[in-house]
Amino acid sequence: MSHENSVEALLEEARLNASIPPPAERQRLREAASLSRAQVAAAVGVGRTTVANWETGASEPTPPGRLPYLKLLKGLAEIYPDPTGPLAGLFPDAPAPAAQAPGTFTSAQTLRGPDGRAIEGDPGPCIRCGIETTYQSTDGRPLHSGAMCQPAGPAAPTEPTTAAPATSAPAPASPTPAPVPSRPERRARSAARAQADVSSLITRAVHEEAERAGGDEEAALKALIKRAIPDVMHLFNETRATGRYDYTAYPALPDILKKPSKKDPDQIWEARPRFHHPGYSLRAPGDIKVTALDVNAAYLSALKVWLPIGKLEHSTGSDGVEPKRSGVHLITPAPWEHPHLPDPIGDRDEPGALWVTNSTLRLLQRLAGPKYGLTEGPVIHESWTSGATENFLDALRKLLSAARDEAIENQDTLTLEYVKAMYSKFISTMGESIHNREMVRPDWMHIIHAQAYANLWGKAYKASTAGLDVVAMMGTDELHVTGDWRQVFPEGRGVAQMKIKHGDAKASGEYTVGTVSR
């Protein structure tokens, strides 16, 4: 860049900055254009929290993101002016927008190639809905593909009404000052806006791939699953933008958390269940009805878990075992003497000491406490732990759960499978994976897996105490029971509900004891 151009750029930035709208108008302009804070942040090269601070007045725009942000505000002011408000006159050199007749662009068609797929070009606001798109119309203007958006034209004309006879207007009432929201209310509103901004990223991703695939849902789903890992990491970072805790993405790992080799199993026992009730597995064929139940989104629910957020520290005995610490522990569990219930330690081949996660240890300690009294507490030999929080992934869990619920309600298979791919791949690649280089936390992966198994054990215990027999419990989400299970668990596809498991296995749906090979 030449010296003259550098000076001109600085002068342009100074001119724009001299007439920058106040924080409230910045937010109005963004919302008028239906842009999320995440979209603005990505366009100007800053974080979503920074944009939020600019819109609330917590801070003022600073380089290097200031100039593109000022240009964006000026452009939005040209499109969405407020000529009657107190902000009239800002960006005075902005031309007035040209009026458009209703339905001007409703007949425009998307430009497609020989294969029928929409062709991309330079990004710009869609002539139909105003939201930015890279797809083009046949005459070169930005236009979303197919019926992916609705015209943003003027409202339909209203019925003409007969003018009422003029009457004297009543005296205006004295203005009542608007109530000032409390700090918790302001925080709640800010959190709701932030969640809406991040939620729009999921909608936008599905929208983009559906357009790019030109209506081929299978191709769109394949593309969404391919991008699930970077997308969910972006969502994770966005939900962590206002988090209270810093975390270590690449901690120094103890040897116990490192795989000996690609072929050898992990050294951490996750307590995966493979339980079959001995009374039923040995019984002759009969007519006792058994229902195979499926736990919905088991791994998604397991994101509510105590995770260590710092460097793991070594301790011996029970010194490192505290309510607000988490990690992995070498323990010797007590014998399990309840054959009608699954062993909370899982299906082990050998007795003795083993390394378990904090999720499993917490479950064993609860079962040894006065509320349950089902077993003796485990002997703790040593631990690798760090300070922990149960809410570290809660914002991400709530975001994905809400997107999943909405997709189910709208019968949106594309979004539903995309959300499932995101949370399952997020967990499976957060350890030592070539597919995710943004963190190396195998301890988190093991802890979340074990929490899913602990949650399933809790459902089995609930069924048993309600009078149902637990015939089998397997994997992360499979529970087979006798009796009227609907009196114990709500039925449905929601995260907190259960549904009948259907599949190719013999033990799917409803069956009678004796039809399943053991």
Overview of the molecule:
- The chain is built from 14 helices and 13 strands.
- The relative contact order is 0.11.
- Helix 1 packs across helix 5 and helix 3 packs across helix 4.
- The protein is α+β, with helices and mostly antiparallel strands and 518 residues long.
- About 5% of the residues have low confidence.
- Strands 3, 4, 10, 11, 12 and 13 form a 6-stranded antiparallel sheet that branches.
**What's the count of strands?**
13
Proportion in helices = 25-40%
Task: Supply the helix-strand structural class.
Answer: alpha+beta
What is the first-to-last residue Cα distance? 76 Å
Our Rg estimate from Cα atoms comes to: 29 Å
- What's the mean pLDDT score? 81
Low-confidence spans: pLDDT under 50, at least 5 residues?
Answer: 96-106, 152-164
Gross morphology: globular
Largest sheet: 6 strands, antiparallel
Quickly count the helices: 14
The fraction of residues assigned to DSSP E strands is: 5-15%
Along the chain, the helix and strand elements come as HHHHHEEHHHEHEHEEEEHEHHHEEEE
